Amino acid sequence: MSQLLITGGCVIDPAQKLFDVPADILLGDGKILALDDRTPARAAQMQAALAAAATVEKFSAAGQTLTPGLIDMHVHFREPGAESEETIASGAAAAIAGGFTTVACMPNTEPAIDSEADINFIYREAHAAQMAEVLAVGAITAGRASERLAEMANMARGGAVAFSDDGRAVGPAALLRQALLYAKMLGKPLLEHCEEPSLAAGGVMNEGEVATELGLPGIPAEAEEIIVARDLLLVKLTGARLHLQHISTRGAVAMLRAAKNAGLPVTAEVTPHHLTLTDANLRTFNPVYKVNPPLRSAADVAACVAALADGTIDAIASDHAPHLQEEKEVEMAQAPFGLLGLETAFGVVYTHLVATGKIPLARVIEAMTTAPAKILGCERGTLAVGAKANLTIWDLTREWTVNPAEFKSKSKNCPWNGQKLCGKPAAVFVGGERKL
Predict the structure, then answer these.
(1) Domain 69-376 sits in which CATH superfamily?
(2) 331-352 pLDDT, tens digit each
(3) Which fold has domain 3-66+388-434?
(4) Most buried among 50, 219, 251, 403, by the most CB within 10 A?
(5) pTM beyond cutoff 0.90
(6) Which residues are part of the catalytic machinery?
(7) What string of DSSP letters covers 330-345?
């Protein structure tokens, strides 16, 4: 079988502590066969691998940056139930277009992904699509109804990498305690949507000065923080792993930081939109900015950026949530929550956080590769020899204008429409096969 030698690029791989290092990478049999970073040992390993190869093709990455393929641990592919918004195939294609080689899809479909058969369906559709790898997340409770646990052990057997009732928190604390213990036994994390429903009911945006000015009902920060506080107490009680999804408030960040300092097994993610947009964007009255949790204040955004920079928040996840145009182009109260994220996530973060000096590129790559791989327990997120050959080659100097009409996603609800961003994937490989 022919092998592929990628030459001339600079590698960023936080898992190997390689930061903008000139290197050549040899791919073969779906794996990384050698990485020559100009050190004697690795140069010798590359020469040996090339000598053993029957044929070698070359791919020039001169002037470009090589990273492990990005991993998004929080996406919504609407299949089954709302295939007009997104399918597993279209979502996997959108992932590739954004530089992602692995994504984890949430189970809040119709019906919910809450059985081993459902998990198998996700993997069959992903395999047929032959684009980005799609990992299945199973529901914590049957039908996401917070009445009884779903078939967690069976779903784990089918390949579920984690469990979540995303879109809502697990209601009864006793039921969440039971779920944490089951997940601990199975060696899987719980991914929790932190929102107290009675406080959030009827809200369309962050509760605060802007909501008052606009006359729109708000969702207070406390709706998120009450569940974060409750869940962290249950983590302390059970010793089970918990992951906080799309964290968005100063108070939640402070509790997360304290929990980590106390040694609790908790991790968290933040979205590009909660790092770069605020509730002031709702002054346009455009429902594209209606998301859950809502866009918060500038002070909340600053706290999230600082927490991501110092590692308190572990990962960046898009919370890719497709909706049809006619669903979003209604009054704010009737519009669904959510926006697209896969095809813009890296460009938004690079343009607004890296290029402005707020967060180093290496930390961003860690948060989009190594960290989600570790949280989900999947063997991805590195260019180490022997690892699966999932990698992305970036043109960090490329300026591009966001145009949802060109997206691979079936939906177009993108708040960055018309904006200029920097950083675009030049090539994407999954299992050594070029997908872009």
Answers:
(1) Metal-dependent hydrolases (3.20.20.140)
(2) 999 999 999 999 999 999 999 9
(3) Urease, subunit C; domain 1 (2.30.40)
(4) 219
(5) yes
(6) 319
(7) S-TTTSPS----TTTH
